[in-house]
Amino acid sequence: MSSELSGDDLTSVASTLPVSPTRDRFQPKKNTVLVSHGRPPWYDEDGKPTGDAYVVAVSGGSGSGKTHVARQIVKSLGSIPTVIILSQDSFYKYHSPEELELAHANKLDFDHPDAIDMPMFAACLADLKACKQSNIPVYSFAEHQRLEEKKYLYGATIIITEGIMALHDPVLRALYDLKVFVQCDSDLMLARRLQRDVKERGRSVDGILDQYLRFVKPSYDNFVRPTAAYADIIVPGSNNTVAIELISAHIRRQLQQRANQFRQKLAIPHLYFNGRSGASTPDSRLEDLDLQVLPQTPQLKGIFTILRSNSTSRQDFVFFADRLSTILVEHAQQYLPYFPKTITTPVGVESHGQILNAKHICGVSILRSGGALERGFRRVINDVPVGSLLVQSDAKTSEPLLLHAMLPVCVKLRHLAKESWVFLLDAQIGTAAAAFMAIRILLDHGVREERIIFVTFLVARGGGVSVLRRAFPRVKIVCGAVDDLMQEGWLEGYRAEGNPEGLGRKIWVMQPGMGQIGDRYYL
Ligand SMILES: Nc1ncnc2c1ncn2[C@@H]1O[C@H](COP(=O)(O)OP(=O)(O)O)[C@@H](O)[C@H]1O
Ligand SMILES: O=c1ccn([C@@H]2O[C@H](COP(=O)(O)O)[C@@H](O)[C@H]2O)c(=O)[nH]1
């Protein structure tokens, strides 16, 4: 495991580490990922990001209400996709023992622009804006120090960054779509700072006042207040509900302009992409789709006959799905790098064989139905992490939404992601909307396209696979069978069972298909 991140292989790091009671009590929870209604596609049919995340910067003096404004904007946005609040405080520089001594005596200037690692702040923000992940530093106000751990952030449609120097640096300013300055009376800022620093940052009143007169107030006058000139909007530091409403209305309008009707286009590519190379129809030539289909042996056909039948018991379904996923993953392993290796056998004879030579391998299943391939995956490739992505359709628009991403560390860290081989697991590729999103997520993290191996039971020839192929030609797709049809309709028994999700709503189904694989495997 990398020394940069510790904690469990799959969880977001900062919260999992043992921390001192003092640190725990005073650690500000400023950098937050707020997911409300899932993240809609941030890329087009060519697989390329359609645009950057929308970045709002909120600046103002200490205690002016920047954090409050950032949180109120999120609240007022209501039903919105993922928002990241990124605090400039995380980017205070690492302090030497001598500097720490000064800091604890309130004699270190934290209010000068040089106190903040602006290049690092700009680099992390640029990554997040470009829809990539970032592992940002964690800062302790109680210890006046940057901690060892890092916090993994990914997947924002909107980023709200806040800090006293947020508008100071021209490189940072160039990254913002909207610049806000919170204007507040100095006495109100001081009163708020006193209350907050005693309660949340473990400070004494004397110390706070000492630091305020020595550094905070002069710096506000010299460096912070002048940056109000760069702001698009000045917001009052109290009674600011109307200003916040205006800002969120503006952001909502910007997001609406970026919306993309994605699944509909993928599901019937011959209607939307006619004339463009690679658009498939139910009669598309299999060779053009470049799928790695398992050899259609009698025993494989036997497995599919059982899996497709609506009279198969759950117990049998699970047994044969596990068997099929084991065969698929075994077959897919041919894409991993193997090298010649000579060994000596128990009878003392040399034998020339092959050995796997891949540093980082992991699985990522697309929930729920991708879970049906996990047991087979673990049987063939044991002792590697398996992450998951929860992608579901928006009930109103049918667009895919990313609701949750839990990725292995070898994907979360960009320098490892470049070297990693990732097996994406999902039961079928129909409209290909979920597959599209999952591949885009891995590419955002820096996984190489040719190192993504998509393993699936079924692919619909007339569905979105052709568009997926054209967007990501180097991804390997290993499947057990190919179905011809992709139609808008109801699954047999789906409505009859009174499934509230399915009631009155058509979904895209492949035929002959295997039904709702997640339901059949788990319920
Ligand atoms: N508009 C407001 N109305 C009421 N209280 C506010 C308002 N803005 C900020 N506060 C309070 O003032 C304190 C400092 O605000 P905060 O947002 O943390 O300041 P900053 O991030 O600018 O240092 C917090 O306790 C917060 O609840
Ligand atoms: O170790 C530190 C680092 C910073 N400060 C003070 O924090 C404020 C900025 O944070 P806000 O949340 O915007 O108030 C800045 O004025 C520094 O003086 C600190 O006291 N110790």
From TrEMBL:
Its EC number is 2.7.1.48. Pathway: Pyrimidine metabolism; UMP biosynthesis via salvage pathway; UMP from uridine: step 1/1; Pyrimidine metabolism; CTP biosynthesis via salvage pathway; CTP from cytidine: step 1/3. Keywords: ATP-binding, Kinase, Nucleotide-binding, Transferase. The keyword Electron transport does not apply. It is an enzyme of class 2 (transferase). SUPFAM superfamilies: P-loop containing nucleoside triphosphate hydrolases (SSF52540), PRTase-like (SSF53271). InterPro entries: P-loop_NTPase, PRK/URK, PRTase-like, PRTase_dom, Uridine_kinase-like. The keyword GTP-binding does not apply. It comes from the Eukaryota. NCBIfam families: PRK05480.1, udk. Belongs to the uridine kinase family. This is Uridine kinase. It comes from Collybia nuda.
